[in-house]
Amino acid sequence: MSSFASRLKELRIEKGYTRQMLADKLFVSVRLISYWENGMRECDFEMLIKIADLLDVSIDYLIGRVNF
User: Fold this and answer.
1) What is the pTM of this model?
2) For residue 10, what pLDDT is reported?
């Protein structure tokens, strides 16, 4: 599993979001959230920014470049 996939799932759970809640906030399908969390797909740069902002982390943390 990629750093992005595992961190996305970890952060989603930590923030108390279900996949449905996260999908609604990002205007994407639950299936797409599942694909991201299972490492089956990657999001584009604009979506990466939205996810990082929503989960209140840096993009570097989200993609596994830093651990804080």
Assistant:
1) 0.92
2) 97
Return the residue matching tokens 């604009």.
46
* Residue ranges in the chain assigned as alpha helix (H): 3-14, 19-26, 30-37, 45-55, 59-62
- Residue 24 is given by DSSP the state H
Spatial neighbors of 21 by CB under 8 A, at least 6 apart, are none
First to last CA, the chain: 19
Residues 24/9, Cβ–Cβ less than 8 Å: no
Torsion angle in degrees (nearest 10) through CA of 57, 29, 6, 46: -40
What dihedral do alpha carbons 23, 46, 39, 21 form, nearest 10°? -10
Structure confidence at residue 48 (pLDDT):
97
